[in-house]
């Protein structure tokens, strides 16, 4: 038996020692015999007990933990982890020790783990080389991207100066950098770009330009290509370039628009890195090739393969495309490390929310996708989504313990109802997520043909809005606000209208959301401020001191340039700032409290008054009412509509008026249409009213006439 | 002879093994070979006529494939957090490891900002970087490739340990 154990120990490259004195670390050699063992324990040759010396520092240290095992009564074992011991001959041994307590016997097994060591080293070597390469590529292109953007965004510099500066910066980059015009004519390409895309073609054949190769690859390999172009979005990802007979390159592409204030693309910056070597390294390890390094989830390629397999089974399933809202802003605010942490934490939470049978992957920078198996109803899919959202409702924490919340946009598409190819499914799920995107809240959007139409229509509206800004197709209408005590106009709200060249007059509800989503609201908002100041000036020149209020969107409140623009307009028109009022919705005041507070303090110091628009529709937290410098509350029309018949609405309006007066705020009721509504508001001490009962929003000239008529009747 | 256990810690690929190799054998190898587990090397230093034997515990870098194990710090007289000045993330990871190490030991800690033969690519502001450096007993900008400050770092650590030992004895 001993002989058999000895043979077994030798085969496993192990030696078994029995501990004879725990305190003195004295052991007796039981089984196993090999040169490597004799090298590390030369004193054991005498066949008698020997003491493990400090010569092997690692093993000697491990004995401290081992003693705790041997001194216990229960059967137990403890592994030391791998360590490397160098013999007197200079040979490296890769060992592991196991302390065992078994049937009251104390054993120490030393294993020669050279095979396990080699496997671990090969795997980790590849993994770490890949991590390093990604790290370096990311850092370099990120840095260059920031510098190029800052140069290309300089409005004052001469075009030629910009090009010279840009060319200088990119000329020595190790990877391909291309700067192209909005219509993809190359302005600059560096030497690395020409090297990377050089083609083995006969001399008489024209070489394709790097930009054309990249665009063709994107068009053929990215279902979201058209959406990226039409929405002027950035994209980072990998493309495979095959050009027979000898070219097969994996490219890591960064594709970024440079936009002007009108959100028009003026240039494209494109980075291309040859990551073929990295891919090769990755492919040496199948698991890594299909795995996302950061989250350890399957990557885009793995997901694609799985999606095709699922389609082939012909069983119904839902594909969810998940996009983190405002992830870029999060990265800019907290830094990339925190951004990575968020992606990891978010992926863990989604994992918890999903079932084990669902397939979940990271398919882009801040994009995840899930295949929800065996369901074909919207209702069942909504239940899954609700579970996911519950997981994300808890706050996330930064390294410093700061907490923040994240919202996501989910696009959902069903196979086979909505599409039956992987490409089409990914494309429509992505489109749905993008269409439903709402920066402040979680958004779920199921795919439908009307959605596709709406999406195309939104792109069309965005294009037309840009034209509208250029061609000044907007006009401000004014709606009078009446002082209940005097029954006279004491203020007017400026309301935006768009004279569409084909569709005629368009109200803001049809385009403001798109303007907000695309950033065009900043330009439109600036125009509104300029025009409001001009109108205030024109009316004041008639000898009437009438306040004009204008609406600010969330993006405008967050815009650093808003205050400067406002003061510039006031200076240019030389109006009294107290003739202006800003209307901000309560959502903005709560969400961007700090930003709003700073802005409101400054504008109020100028003499501009502030009103809270749509009051009562959003948030229950009223703390901001006490803390922020406010003047008016505008009760939303939804409470006024049923005020005569609905006891709840009556109670709410009375309570709001009471609370506002306690806080020294005046109240304006919006949407007043009937004498009964007016009578209720007058009887309950509402300060001002606004609505069709007095006047619809009207053009400036009509408003002036109305004012003049009123003054004649005074 | 006085024997001291010194641990080299840090993210993977920052140059821990190369620093030990440079210090012990005066060799640098361009090829990166990742360390698995632990390897203990020894080198004797002579500081002010006192012989000191350093047991240098070169440990596998910490990343998503290998988590930091506090137990390896047991009995350490000092530890060196190695970071790579071409990778800002390695400094953050180094600081994280230092925080974990501080939970189990109060022994002297050195920050070795390695690869000073290459241009630094991190863009920390001075106060941020100074705050990081202040967390350590000693700071060195090293290059395992050129040998810059490698000997100096280990000698300074040896002197510090001897001084602490002397203070212990006299007090």
Automatic annotation (TrEMBL), chain A:
Domain annotation GGDEF: ranges: 315-449
Annotated EAL domain residues: 458-711
Pfam families reported in the protein's UniProt record: EAL, GGDEF
InterPro entries found in the cross-reference section: Biofilm_reg_signaling, EAL_dom, EAL_sf, GGDEF_dom, Nucleotide_cyclase, PAS-like_dom_sf, Rev_trsase/Diguanyl_cyclase
PANTHER family named in the record: BIOFILM ARCHITECTURE MAINTENANCE PROTEIN MBAA, DIGUANYLATE CYCLASE DGCP
Protein name: Diguanylate cyclase (GGDEF) domain-containing protein
Native species: Colwellia chukchiensis
UniProtKB/TrEMBL annotation, chain B:
Family annotation (InterPro entries): P-loop_NTPase, Small_GTP-bd, Small_GTPase
Keywords in alphabetical order: Nucleotide-binding
Organism: Colwellia chukchiensis
Classification via SMART domains: RAB, RAS
Gene Ontology terms for molecular function: GTP binding; GTPase activity
Lipid metabolism keyword on record: no
Keyword Transport: no
Name assigned to this protein: Small GTP-binding protein domain-containing protein
């Amino acid at each position: 038996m001993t002989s058999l154990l000895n043979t077994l120990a030798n085969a496993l490259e192990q030696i078994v020692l029995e501990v004879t004195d725990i305190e003195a670390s004295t052991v007796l050699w039981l089984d196993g015999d090999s040169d490597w063992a004799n090298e590390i324990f030369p004193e054991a040759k005498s066949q008698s007990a020997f003491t493990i010396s400090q010569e092997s520092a690692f093993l000697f240290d491990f004995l401290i933990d081992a003693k705790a095992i041997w001194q216990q009564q229960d059967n137990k074992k403890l592994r030391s982890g791998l360590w490397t011991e160098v013999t007197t001959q200079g040979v490296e041994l890769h060992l592991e020790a196991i302390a065992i307590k078994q049937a009251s016997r104390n054993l120490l097994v030393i294993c020669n783990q050279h095979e396990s060591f080699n496997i671990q080293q090969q795997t980790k070597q590849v993994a770490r080389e890949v991590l390093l390469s990604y790290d370096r590529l990311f850092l370099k292109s990120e840095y260059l991207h920031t510098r190029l953007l800052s140069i290309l965004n300089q409005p004052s510099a001469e075009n030629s100066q910009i090009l010279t500066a840009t060319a200088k910066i990119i000329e020595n980059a190790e990877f391909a950098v291309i700067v192209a015009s909005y219509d993809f004519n190359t302005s600059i390409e560096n030497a690395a770009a020409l090297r990377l895309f050089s083609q083995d073609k006969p001399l008489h054949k024209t070489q394709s330009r790097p930009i054309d190769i990249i665009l063709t690859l994107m068009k053929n390999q990215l279902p979201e290509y058209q959406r990226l172009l039409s929405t002027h979005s950035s994209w980072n990802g990998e493309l495979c370039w095959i050009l027979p007979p000898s070219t097969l390159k994996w490219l890591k592409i960064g594709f970024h628009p440079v936009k002007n204030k009108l959100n028009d693309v003026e240039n494209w910056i494109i980075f291309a890195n040859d990551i073929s070597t990295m891919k090769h390294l990755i492919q040496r390890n199948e698991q890594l090739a299909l795995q996302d390094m950061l989250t350890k989830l399957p990557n885009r390629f793995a997901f694609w393969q799985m999606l095709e397999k699922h389609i082939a089974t012909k069983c119904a399933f839902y594909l969810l495309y998940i996009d983190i809202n405002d992830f870029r802003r999060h990265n800019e605010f907290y830094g990339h490390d925190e951004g990575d942490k968020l992606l990891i934490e978010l992926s863990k939470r989604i994992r918890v929310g999903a079932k084990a049978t669902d397939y979940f992957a990271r398919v882009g920078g801040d994009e995840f996708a899930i295949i929800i198996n065996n369901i074909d109803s919207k209702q069942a899919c909504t239940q899954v989504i609700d579970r996911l959202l519950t997981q994300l409702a808890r706050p996330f924490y930064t390294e410093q313990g700061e907490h923040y919340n994240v919202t996501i946009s989910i696009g959902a598409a069903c196979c086979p109802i909505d599409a039956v190819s992987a490409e089409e499914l990914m494309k429509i799920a992505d489109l749905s997520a993008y269409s439903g995107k709402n920066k402040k809240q979680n958004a779920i959007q199921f795919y439908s043909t009307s959605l596709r139409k709406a999406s195309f229509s939104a792109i069309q509206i965005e294009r037309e809005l840009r034209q509208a800004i250029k061609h000044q197709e907007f006009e401000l209408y004014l709606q009078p606000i009446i002082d209940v005590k005097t029954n006279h106009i004491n203020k007017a709200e400026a309301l935006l209208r768009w004279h569409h060249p084909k569709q005629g007059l368009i109200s803001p509800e049809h385009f403001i959301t798109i303007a907000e989503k695309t950033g065009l609201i900043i330009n439109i908002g600036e125009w509104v401020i300029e025009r409001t100041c001009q109108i205030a000036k024109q009316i004041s020149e008639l000898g009437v001191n009438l306040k004009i209020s204008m609406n600010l969107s969330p993006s405008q409140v967050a815009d650093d340039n808003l205050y400067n623009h406002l003061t510039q307009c006031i200076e240019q028109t030389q109006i009294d700032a107290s003739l202006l009022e800003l209307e901000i919705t309560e959502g903005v005041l709560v969400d961007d409290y700090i930003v709003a507070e700073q802005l409101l303090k400054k504008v109020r110091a100028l003499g501009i008054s502030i009103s809270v628009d749509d009051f009562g529709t959003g948030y229950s937290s009223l703390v901001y009412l006490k803390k922020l410098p406010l003047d008016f509350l505008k009760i939303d029309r939804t409470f006024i509509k049923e005020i005569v018949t609905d006891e709840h609405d009556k109670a709410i309006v009375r309570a709001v008026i009471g609370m506002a007066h306690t806080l020294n705020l005046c109240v304006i009721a919006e949407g007043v249409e009937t004498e009964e509504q007016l009578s209720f508001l007058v009887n309950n001490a509402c300060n001002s009213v606004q609505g069709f009962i007095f006047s619809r929003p009207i053009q400036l000239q009509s408003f002036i006439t109305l004012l003049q008529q009123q003054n004649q009747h005074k | 002879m006085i024997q001291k256990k010194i641990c080299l810690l840090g993210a993977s690929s920052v140059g821990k093994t190369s620093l030990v190799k440079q210090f012990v054998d005066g060799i640098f190898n361009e090829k990166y070979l990742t360390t698995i587990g632990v390897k203990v090397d020894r080198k004797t230093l002579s500081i002010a006529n006192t012989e000191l034997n350093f047991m240098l515990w070169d440990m596998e870098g910490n990343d998503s494939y290998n988590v930091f194990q506090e137990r390896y710090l047991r009995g350490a007289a000092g530890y060196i957090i190695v970071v790579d000045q071409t990778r800002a993330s390695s400094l953050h990871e180094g600081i994280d490891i230092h925080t974990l190490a501080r939970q189990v030991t109060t022994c002297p800690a050195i920050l070795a900002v390695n690869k000073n033969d290459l241009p630094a690519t991190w863009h920390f502001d001075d106060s941020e970087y100074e705050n990081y450096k202040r967390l350590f007993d000693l700071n060195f900008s090293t290059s395992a490739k050129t040998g810059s400050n490698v000997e100096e770092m280990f000698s300074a650590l040896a002197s510090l340990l001897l001084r602490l030992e002397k203070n212990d004895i006299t007090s």
